[in-house]
Amino acid sequence: MASPSSTALLKWAQAASRGFAAASAGNPGRKVAVLGAAGGIGQPLSMLMKMNSQVSSLSLYDIAGTPGVAADVSHINTKAQTRGYDKDGLAEALRGCDLVIIPAGVPRKPGMTRDDLFKINAGIVRDLVEAVGKHCPGAVLNIISNPVNSTVPIAAEQLKKMGVYDKRKIMGVTTLDVVRAKTFYAEKNGLDVSAVDVPVVGGHAGVTILPLFSQATPKATMSAEVLDALTKRTQDGGTEVVQAKAGKGSATLSMAYAAALFADACLRGLNGHPVVECTYVESTVTDAPYFASKVKLSTEGVDKVHDLGPLSDYEKDGLKAMMPELLASIEKGVQFVKGA
Ligand SMILES: NC(=O)c1ccc[n+]([C@@H]2O[C@H](COP(=O)([O-])OP(=O)(O)OC[C@H]3O[C@@H](n4cnc5c(N)ncnc54)[C@H](O)[C@@H]3O)[C@@H](O)[C@H]2O)c1
Ligand SMILES: O=C(O)C[C@H](O)C(=O)O
Prior knowledge:
Blueprint: H1 4-17, E1 30-35, H2 42-50, E2 55-61, H3 66-74, E3 81-85, H4 90-94, E4 99-102, H5 118-135, E5 140-143, H6 148-161, E6 170-172, H7 175-189, E7 200-202, E8 209-211, H8 224-235, H9 237-245, H10 253-270, E9 275-282, E10 290-298, E11 301-305, H11 313-338
Parallel strand pairs: 1-2, 1-4, 2-3, 4-5, 5-6
Antiparallel strand pairs: 7-8, 9-10, 10-11
Helix pairs in contact: 2-10, 5-6, 6-11, 7-8
Nicotinamide-adenine-dinucleotide binds at residues 35-36, 38-42, 62-64, 103-108, 117, 121, 124, 128, 144-146, 148, 173, 176, 204, 249-252, 255.
């Protein structure tokens, strides 16, 4: 059964293959770049962005392997003009971009935390965002590279340093947490997943991922044990995939799907059709300066950061429990750029 989101995805594909732009009618085509386009997420995400009728130009950038990926994706008969760029082509890839999606960086292996990726990915994200600040400072940024709790503050600090920071433009992609929470909640309660919604707030690592099942729709009555198990499964969803892949990386296909949904929402917003999605942004909703909650995406990016709504006692405890880790990850990201 298709969810509203996957129905949207199917509609793109159908609209694209019929050669018309349902979602982009009357709007300018958008230039989108995928940085890390030859990777496990990058490849299927590039394909899905090529299928998005709101995209007229698609830049596929990676430090290796882009000619093959770009040649392959470019044969899909949709309107987005697709070009691959290698190391020397970053400026050209970015020039004029409306949306830049960053899945560049290393993934986890079993036994690692997302924070263990900081050593390598912090520098990758900082350098790519510096190029964004130089070549397309007005673009909306979707950051996928882990640890998201730190890479989003890194991106923000880098753009602040360059004098081009706009808090409305930077979003950490937490859509996969929402996708997982919807799937697990629907499965457990025998619901039609296409009718299910579950907000997920906080951050994107372990206990910082907090699904708000008390606000899930349609409502289902769950015992405390089931609620706890669903919450933990959502928090550990990434680890479940890392263990199943046994050393061959982390979620790529479900992540590409989630990233494509979120990028589509951003493009709809830019094109004047506001959408509300959960995402990790600069925030004053809690004590954490960056926090994921429902956000209205509109013509300039983030339009309104919604507060959390009523929380159950279990969720209030979860919110309290995540704060030390979330605040430490944010500070680590801030200091990586500020302290340099
Ligand atoms: N936000 C989320 O929910 C979420 C979900 C899954 C994975 N991730 C993260 O996404 C990242 C990528 O995962 P993956 O499975 O695609 O990894 P991967 O190793 O398959 O692909 C990463 C790609 O990045 C490229 N790359 C490395 N340095 C680069 C640079 N400086 N510029 C451009 N490209 C560069 C590599 O060449 C490679 O093609 C990881 O950090 C992973 O933890 C996040
Ligand atoms: O778990 C990971 O390392 C990748 C990603 O953050 C995920 O949630 O799948």
